[in-house]
Write a structure and sequence with these properties.
heterodimer; A: 173 residues; alpha/beta; six-stranded parallel beta sheet; four-stranded mixed beta sheet; 31% helix; 28% strand; B: 726 residues; 10% strand
Chain lengths: 173, 726
Amino acid sequence: MASKRASFEGALEALGVTVSSTTKSELEAAVTQAITEPAVGTALGETVGNEAFSLTETPVTVDPTPVALREATTGVTGAELGVGDYGSLVLSMTEEASELVSLFVERHVAVLHEEDIQPDMDAAVAELDERFNETGGSAIIATGPSATADMGALVKGAHGPREVHVIVVEGGA
Amino acid sequence: MATADELRELMRTEGAAVAENTQGFNTGRYDSVADLADYEDLKQAARSIKEDAIADLPDLLDQLTDTVEANGGTVYIADDAADANEYIRDVVDERAADRVVKSKSMTSEEIEVNEALEADGVDVVETDLGEWVLQVADEAPSHIVAPAIHKSRESIADLFNERFDPDEPLETAEELTRFAREKLGEQIIDAEVGITGANFVTADTGTMALVTSEGNARKTVAATDTHVAVAGVEKVIPTVGDLHPFIELIGRSGTGQDITSYVSLLTPPVDTPVVDFTDDETPLSAFDADRDFHLVLIDNGRLEMRDDEHLRETLYCIRCSACSNSCANFQSVGGHAFGGETYSGGIATGWEAGIEGLDVAEEFNDLCTGCTRCVNACPVGIDIPWINTVVRDRINRDKDAPGEWLVDGLTPDEEDDGAPLQKRFFGNFETVAKLGSATAPVSNWLAETTLARRSMDRILGIDPRRDLPTFERETLVDWAAARDSRVDDPERRAVLYPDLYTNHVQVDRGKAAVKVLESLGVDVVVPPAPSSGRAPLSQGMVATATDHAERVTETLSPHIEDGRDVVVIEPSDHAMFTREYERLLDEAAFTDIAENSYEVFEYVFGLLDNGASVDSLSTVEGAEIAYHSHCQQRTLGLEAHTVAVLEDCGYDVVTSDVECCGMAGSFGYKSDYYELSMDVGDRLRTQLRDDGVQERPVVASGTSCLEQIDALLERQPRHPIELLAT
């Protein structure tokens, strides 16, 4: 576990993605610290395995309107998996519009359970293979902020977020 | 085919931006794949997934159709571009869409769907920033992954400032990106239909993988309610698990990123709600995910390519652009010259020949020199030079033969009487060389007369700015025949292959090789032997090359049976024996010659490694030298042997790292390509003139490289074997 986490965090650092860690009980404080307001989000119950983590005690507007989404600077969502060797996040696409919340913002804050860090891409794809074959579904393997080199130099922040922050939630589910 | 004038103009206007970008990608590739411990295993896995998928294609298409339809989508298999466009126009029409947003897709470029939709009055907006720049500029992509690499930041700024007249003129890449993001962002949320490509589609779950960096493909899908994915039929692979090697390889092989920002794995229709972006009352989750999905799979010649034993490999291509970025000629001219209707780079010859036809492939196929630098770069191991050779052969045969009077005596091989005269001249250079030696020095004087050079330029397209090879009256074979072996109790016995140039032109390096081998205890014979067939092969004269291959093996086989190793000085001929002959000979004949052939320094390295003493050679103490290896030699992993032996002999060696010297056999002699050849060579010249290098004597392994370096530098280069002879 320690080495997976270390390689994951090392890869995130190389990508310019900031990381903080917290426990379940401190999660809302960690989220509050990680966001730049105005912030919107999706409920994190599924990610953290506890419905209590609804972000109601944070400045985050959960389940915002489309206009609020467009006006927001930060979007908070869960991440299904982390990929140790690449620093990638596997983002699922929920009916709560997690895809929109993680995409139409300047800053994406992803909340990931430590246990969901996979050692490498091979393991992560094997997980997805299993899930897709059992229940269907879609996912984004997101690695760092959106970027483009089409304008003559590498620029972070193309159509998607220009900043990504990961909150690793420690402790058993 | 692009003329010298057209190539010169492209190099002037686009060359600098193309060179900087492609070389950056190429360097990134080397760095990025070096971090993968299991790089070769991943390539092998990717290759076999594609091989199997193309073999099983009809079944996989059936399975995929069932899966997508069970998921609630629709699959349409289009015979050709018109068929695909008609279907897509119907979908857009039925949705009553005013605007279609697109993420980057080469297949959609192939069918020209934008034009088809625009004719119906639909506003089609490219959302990939590079594609959008080209849409605004009304230009064609110059690269399959980064379509606007031919444009500098300055030229994009000028374009935007002129077209959109912003309050503050745009200047930096940051400002240009932000401007485009805002402009396109408004159009994306207002569109009804999103068109994407698909890098891979899995038959088991109907999942498509989209490899992107900007996030525009995600937005194109999420913000519209009707998703049309356009992909060639070859994109289907069996399972989600099969995506793994491709996810690891595609970014590294192409632009040198370990992975792109986003790999979307979509099993449409997706669950993301379709929202009204102007609504400020309804929460996101209260919107329905009422989505339509259409997967349009395009044949457009691909199923015929599948049945074509030489073009089939093209279908394994994952469009990563490694073959473009690793190509020395592409680095100079980009896809506007080295490309067809849609695709560019080495693999484009296969795509354009299969999709558009030989006439389109002919427009750029000459720009592949067969240097093979793309071969190891390709993540699915496609033999791209071979595809180019086969297509060149077909183009040759497609043409009317030139007048017989021109051909008599010059090109005696009847098998390839379709090839144009210039190709036949270079392809049958053996005849010229034999005649040249037999009549030297008169042949050399005559060839250098102004009148002769003018005729060569006019009739054969040989550029008068090139020095011609000087033929030696006494060939290496003659020299060897007139002397006795100097080794009494040999450690090993070898046959030194007298390649065309060593035998007729650079005879000294042949003599040096004999002496070096003898001083290491090897008994050496140098029998007369036919030329390897490299020259005709590079002109696309496959039948002639095959004839050479057969005659070479007939000549060398008795020596191999007799226990002799085959030692080859010229790397391009060694590569013929160990690589290209696999295509030309039966398996047993190929294995026999391939397994017993050694590049001369590979052989010396082996001798030293097995106990021969370096003291038998001419050694130095720390003398500085610069070494340029040969493209095909490097592809075979044989640069290191020369460096190691030179270091053993006491040299301080620096090596060049350009992909090719630019000469590439006859390429640099041709009037149409002389300036391109020199532009490629300029990168080598720059390296050889670097601080700490410019005073060093230069050695190079390949004949063409030696000719090119001789033209590029004041210093006259030599073959490294000449340093070792006592």
